[in-house]
Amino acid sequence: MKNNKIAKLLICCRDRKGIVAKVSNFLFKNGANIIQSDQYTTDYQNGHFFMRIEFDQTNLSISKQIFEKKFSLIAENLEIKWSLYEGKKKKRMAIFVSKEGHCLFDLLWRWKSGELDVDIPVIISNHNDLKLLAEDFNITYHHFNISKENKEDQEKEILKHLYNIDFIVLARYMQILSAKFINHYPSKIINIHHSFLPAFAGAKPYEKAYQRGVKLIGATAHYATTNLDEGPIIEQDVLRVTHKDNPSDLKHKGQDIEKAVLAKAVKWHLEDRIIVHNNKTIVFS
Amino acid sequence: MKNNKIAKLLICCRDRKGIVAKVSNFLFKNGANIIQSDQYTTDYQNGHFFMRIEFDQTNLSISKQIFEKKFSLIAENLEIKWSLYEGKKKKRMAIFVSKEGHCLFDLLWRWKSGELDVDIPVIISNHNDLKLLAEDFNITYHHFNISKENKEDQEKEILKHLYNIDFIVLARYMQILSAKFINHYPSKIINIHHSFLPAFAGAKPYEKAYQRGVKLIGATAHYATTNLDEGPIIEQDVLRVTHKDNPSDLKHKGQDIEKAVLAKAVKWHLEDRIIVHNNKTIVFS
Amino acid sequence: MKNNKIAKLLICCRDRKGIVAKVSNFLFKNGANIIQSDQYTTDYQNGHFFMRIEFDQTNLSISKQIFEKKFSLIAENLEIKWSLYEGKKKKRMAIFVSKEGHCLFDLLWRWKSGELDVDIPVIISNHNDLKLLAEDFNITYHHFNISKENKEDQEKEILKHLYNIDFIVLARYMQILSAKFINHYPSKIINIHHSFLPAFAGAKPYEKAYQRGVKLIGATAHYATTNLDEGPIIEQDVLRVTHKDNPSDLKHKGQDIEKAVLAKAVKWHLEDRIIVHNNKTIVFS
Amino acid sequence: MKNNKIAKLLICCRDRKGIVAKVSNFLFKNGANIIQSDQYTTDYQNGHFFMRIEFDQTNLSISKQIFEKKFSLIAENLEIKWSLYEGKKKKRMAIFVSKEGHCLFDLLWRWKSGELDVDIPVIISNHNDLKLLAEDFNITYHHFNISKENKEDQEKEILKHLYNIDFIVLARYMQILSAKFINHYPSKIINIHHSFLPAFAGAKPYEKAYQRGVKLIGATAHYATTNLDEGPIIEQDVLRVTHKDNPSDLKHKGQDIEKAVLAKAVKWHLEDRIIVHNNKTIVFS
Question: Do D21 and C35 touch (CB under 8 A)?
Answer without folding.
Answer: no
